[in-house]
């Protein structure tokens, strides 16, 4: 086959996978309800030059290229198209530099988030972005999907930590964007354009990342509320009073019960909403006390501050297990990612409960409450066509509600295949036209991750 | 004249200025060595619809449009072209909303930075970006030039506070980008593309800005050093040890003397470098003590911590007066804005001193040292052609040195007319081609601020 022969001219044999049983396992990320095609070949380059060779070949032969990290994404952005080259960056996994004076790390895209986090910790530094999949997901994937996590309420999202990029363009040319410096405003911000572009503009082969000093270990509290509205009232008060929690998470009754059923953690099974707050400040106990009072004032029936890091970890583990626990409720789940202004969070949660009732579905909600970022998770039986249909429809209702409340269809999971039609609705025709214009500038042949985003 | 008549069809009479004596005063921002043309007309719209009318007219008649804020910029980005419409946004100066729960402000572009800062302070909130011109400059100008300031070492630049924009495009259509939410990854980040685009992609008519809780009042110290290298060593140690100063500024001997000459502030006239550090933490005195020790270890001959906010203000006033003081040294100044990795700051300062010596010039340097962002300010006699030529050449040497040290030609002042050739050098041909492609998407007729950036 001409494609494979051409690829072989610039890649070692072990970097090219063609056995359909093997390549088939690269067809999907972790999203539900997203179609995936059959790749022609999977390539695993180890150098920038090899990536350039792959892209030159793809351009010459007009073959679509689907870039992949660890395939932990939740929107189908890494799903294969029929006949495509799957370009997996997992073998480019070197940490090239960690510089405590400049507070930067220089990495290849395949580095696992947790590996980088631990490596910079050893230098007294901190790489904040912490998606739930941080032990599996790669920095390149984090950049492609603009990942968030639990830390965002204090530390922001991946985008805020990407200073500069090396990118192999669709035609194989190398582009360097951004900088190693703390500041810089030379020309349009192409770096930021690539963050969240889901591999549709070029292949990230190296990144300069900003680091923070490692904060003190965080201390958490849990507060039980008799309604999600009361918990959201507490969230608004905490933020309006100027607190800077390192984490502010909400679990609804369905989520709490699912975690209890799975892990017997002894969470308060009768509660309607559990709020978790943490501080990594010099005096976290004082901050927790102040936040505990606000929770009580908002109607919390019980407030339990952790006194040790170990107790905190236990509380937070409940939150980290939520999605896994919800996956056990029925045979399938569909996780949403609507972000609303935090002042509208209560309406979002009440509205989601109403949608669950309307469709007769179980929808568990956990939320990065401090950011207004909710993850309604529809639990359904995939073997039941009617329930599957209702699940899909409820998902659309949830996105419509998010937009109605002044929010966005995706806080941190991205668009991929899953939310293409909704992206068009959120952007409107003018925005969509300009986004397509930008895509055309970088990828005039349309070979980079076609069918994603729009 | 057809242009004026067309403009009158959608603008009140007082919004159109045509008297050449008046319009001539809108020809320039505050940059040196930048040519400016003669505008055909100055328009001062008060509504989005008026801006749309102006842009539709400009598109129909193919007339260039130069957007302007308060014209405090330092790169000529707001300079008029011959026959252009100067579109001044200063009359669109409403603060539309301040929301403490969502921690956002919604503003029109003409709002003065200091006016917004004070307005949000009244709600216990903080809008960090604080360019030296903050009492005069407008938020729209800050967005257009991606302004920085003294706060950046802890709080980052303007770009990090712009969540969403309303933009009137070249053809008069309205584009809404971004969001009101804390997070959001729906499509390419067009918001960020506009920040620092110097009016070359569209007209910002409304902005959603992120706010922070108001921090405690900062407390500062001053440390005298026997060399800039020793002061830079202290800067590196402070940052490597994980400190988070709210300000970390350096003044070289020339700057210190200029301030003393102007304001008789009693600064140590014999010092080679003065370092100013401040903390807005809960216990600033403890942080200052730790930083003071690092300064002493790096060779500081004297360390003076302020004990009150009033003492801090006095120390910081010296820094705020530096540019004004340097402007009194000779008849003209030319201020540069090179940013290097902070680990290279000492080399940047030593190299700048060598350049001053080579050209026989007085170059005072103040620096946002914590960011590696230096402002070498060439003081020269504009009436002396040879000295003017040497000033211009030294300026080029300084930018070349910045790039050589892994830095950028502009940390926060932008490109405008002043650094066009240098932008091309920093970006390289591939980057430049893509930037031009983006410009073409938004402004196919090339009527928006032509001749700026590239």
UniProtKB/TrEMBL annotation, chains A, B:
<keyword id="KW-0285">Flavoprotein</keyword>
<keyword id="KW-0560">Oxidoreductase</keyword>
<dbReference type="InterPro" id="IPR016166">
    <property type="entry name" value="FAD-bd_PCMH"/>
</dbReference>
<dbReference type="InterPro" id="IPR016164">
    <property type="entry name" value="FAD-linked_Oxase-like_C"/>
</dbReference>
<dbReference type="InterPro" id="IPR004113">
    <property type="entry name" value="FAD-bd_oxidored_4_C"/>
</dbReference>
<dbReference type="InterPro" id="IPR016169">
    <property type="entry name" value="FAD-bd_PCMH_sub2"/>
</dbReference>
<dbReference type="InterPro" id="IPR016171">
    <property type="entry name" value="Vanillyl_alc_oxidase_C-sub2"/>
</dbReference>
<keyword id="KW-0274">FAD</keyword>
<protein>
    <submittedName>
        <fullName>FAD-binding protein</fullName>
    </submittedName>
</protein>
<feature type="domain" description="FAD-binding PCMH-type">
    <location>
        <begin position="35"/>
        <end position="214"/>
    </location>
</feature>
<dbReference type="Pfam" id="PF01565">
    <property type="entry name" value="FAD_binding_4"/>
</dbReference>
<dbReference type="InterPro" id="IPR006094">
    <property type="entry name" value="Oxid_FAD_bind_N"/>
</dbReference>
<dbReference type="InterPro" id="IPR036318">
    <property type="entry name" value="FAD-bd_PCMH-like_sf"/>
</dbReference>
<comment type="similarity">
    <text>Belongs to the FAD-binding oxidoreductase/transferase type 4 family.</text>
</comment>
<dbReference type="Pfam" id="PF02913">
    <property type="entry name" value="FAD-oxidase_C"/>
</dbReference>
<dbReference type="GO" id="GO:0071949">
    <property type="term" value="F:FAD binding"/>
</dbReference>
<dbReference type="GO" id="GO:0016491">
    <property type="term" value="F:oxidoreductase activity"/>
</dbReference>
<dbReference type="InterPro" id="IPR051914">
    <property type="entry name" value="FAD-linked_OxidoTrans_Type4"/>
</dbReference>
């Amino acid at each position: 086959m001409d494609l494979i022969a051409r690829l072989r001219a610039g890649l070692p044999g072990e970097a090219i996978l063609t056995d359909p049983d093997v390549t088939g396992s690269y067809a999907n990320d972790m999203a539900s309800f997203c179609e995936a095609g059959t790749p022609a070949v999977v390539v695993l380059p180890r150098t920038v030059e090899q990536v350039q060779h792959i892209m030159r070949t793809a351009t010459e032969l007009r073959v679509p290229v689907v870039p992949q990290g660890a395939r932990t994404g939740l929107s189908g952005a890494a799903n294969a198209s029929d006949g495509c080259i799957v370009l997996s960056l997992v073998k480019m996994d070197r940490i090239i530099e960690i510089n405590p004076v400049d507070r930067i790390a220089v990495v290849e895209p395949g580095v696992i988030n947790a590996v980088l986090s631990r490596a910079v910790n050893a230098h007294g530094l901190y790489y904040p972005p912490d998606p739930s999949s941080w032990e599996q997901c790669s920095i390149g994937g984090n950049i492609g999907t603009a990942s968030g996590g639990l830390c965002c309420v204090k530390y922001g999202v991946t985008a805020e930590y990407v200073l500069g990029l090396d990118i192999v363009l669709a035609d194989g040319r190398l582009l360097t964007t951004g900088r190693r410096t703390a500041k810089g405003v030379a020309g349009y911000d192409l770096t930021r354009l690539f963050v969240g572009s889901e591999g549709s503009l070029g292949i990230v082969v190296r990144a300069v990342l900003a680091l923070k000093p490692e904060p003190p270990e965080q201390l958490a509290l849990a507060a039980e509320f008799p309604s999600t509205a009361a918990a959201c009232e507490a969230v608004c008060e905490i933020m309006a009073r100027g607190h800077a929690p390192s984490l502010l998470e909400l679990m609804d009754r369905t989520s709490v019960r699912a975690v209890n059923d799975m892990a017997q953690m002894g969470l308060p099974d009768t509660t309607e909403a559990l709020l978790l707050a943490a501080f990594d400040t010099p005096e976290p106990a004082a901050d927790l006390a102040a936040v505990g009072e606000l929770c009580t004032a908002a109607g919390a029936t019980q407030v339990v501050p952790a006194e040790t890091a170990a107790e905190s970890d236990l509380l937070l583990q409940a939150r980290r297990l939520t999605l896994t626990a919800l996956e056990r409720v029925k045979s399938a789940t569909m996780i949403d990612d609507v972000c609303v202004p935090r002042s509208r969070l209560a309406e979002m949660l009440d509205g989601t409960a109403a949608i669950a009732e309307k469709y007769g579905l179980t929808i568990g909600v956990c939320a990065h409450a401090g950011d207004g970022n909710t993850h309604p998770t529809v639990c359904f039986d995939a073997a039941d066509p009617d329930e599957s249909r209702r699940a899909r429809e409820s998902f659309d209702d949830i996105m419509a509600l998010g937009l109605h409340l002044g929010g966005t269809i995706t806080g941190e999971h991205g668009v991929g295949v899953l939310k293409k039609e909704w992206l068009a609705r959120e952007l409107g025709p003018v925005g969509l036209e300009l986004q397509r214009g930008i895509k055309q500038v970088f990828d005039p042949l349309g070979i980079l991750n076609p069918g994603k985003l729009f």
